[in-house]
Amino acid sequence: MEHRDVGQTGLKISEVGLGTASIAGLYRACSRSDAMDVLETAWRSGIRYFDTAPFYGFGLAERRLGDYLREKPASEWVLSTKVGRVLEPTKDAVPSFGFVDALPFKFHYDYGYDGIMRSIEQSFARLGLSKIDIAYVHDIGSFTHGGDLTDLHLRQLLDGGLRALEELKTAGVIKGYGLGVNEIDICNAVMDHARLDYILLAGRYTLLDRTAQVGFLPRCQAAGTSVVVGGVFNSGILATGPVADAYFDYAPASPEILNKVSAMQDLAFAANRSLAEAALQFPLNHPAVRGILIGTAKGDSLIRNLELLSNRMARDEFEPFEDHTIKQSLTGDAAGLFNVD
């Protein structure tokens, strides 16, 4: 598998990374043995970049990923986790946010200096590892918080959170930092004040949604900010096709989206490709994009997706799809669940 430079930090990531929300029980239970099988399948397939977050299973994803990577040479893998949500133990029932069999924790948002320092310290403890390579500021935009709270959290980040991240980087605790979000406005707002090493952007540069194409990706190139694309299937519809219960951006797909995807599927079939094949490969053609994330709770599903990357499409093969794309930001409440299939 190809490895690509990211940011200006000396790190290289495999062009396909594994997101770990699914192995923490996102939407359906995932046993520990199944989680370890997915991680082993990823490793045997050449994946060396793993992304996680305290939010995923309320600590479960970090624990499982750490248990797996602890037996692997630290020099051979790159790990990113996230900051912005600080976990606290609880005996009370709490919203699951879609995670089945999550650990008994609740969280509060804290994008300030102390919150980020505490979050990284807790992540090291859950992971049980000697390094965290990348820290992403998680879900700081308006689709998670709304307008007023977004302003408050952005001020926390600008007034102290970025200083914490820069201190962690300078001290060698992390190699780099950035944002893990599914909207562009907040990326631009932070980039107006800071040079970010990475942005994990979910769903805004896909075969269907090209919101990031004009303006944002060129800005990242100019700034030396590497982009990793999550949500390449836009919550599923680019994998399932325009079926009746297809989801787009965390909600049932509208008739307009179904029509667009139907036309794309026809184009893919005419070129002897599958829609999922085109969707997986599309983001990797942009020079600002250094990798994609895929996530699953099943090893055989991961293998199928990786096989779809083996016969690469030329850049001009994606041009016919352009007429059926959308170029607008996510609408609705994404509930913080980005970078899923």
Major β-sheet annotation: 8 strands, parallel, barrel
- Radius of gyration, whole Å: 19 Å
Strand order, main sheet: write it out: 3-4-5-8-9-10-11-14
CATH architecture annotation: Alpha-Beta Barrel
First-to-last CA distance:
21 Å
Assign a percent range to the helix content. 25-40%
N to C succession of SSEs = EEEHEHEEEHEHHEHEHEHEEHHEH
Write a concise keyword list for the protein shown above.
eight-stranded parallel beta barrel, two-stranded antiparallel sheet, 11 helices
Describe this structure in words.
The protein has helices spanning 32-44, 60-69, 113-127, 142-145, 147-170, 184-191, 216-223, 237-240, 255-270, 275-281, 299-307, and strands at residues 3-6, 11-14, 16-19, 49-51, 78-83, 85-89, 105-109, 134-138, 176-181, 198-202, 226-230, 247-248, 251-252, 289-294. The chain is of the alpha/beta class. The protein has one domain (3-324): TIM Barrel (Alpha-Beta Barrel), CATH 3.20.20.100. The strands form four sheets. The chain has an eight-stranded parallel barrel, surrounded by five helices. It has a two-stranded antiparallel sheet with strand order 1-2. The chain has a two-stranded antiparallel ribbon with strand order 6-7. The protein starts with a strand and ends in a 34-residue tail after the last helix. Residues 331-341 have low confidence and may be disordered.
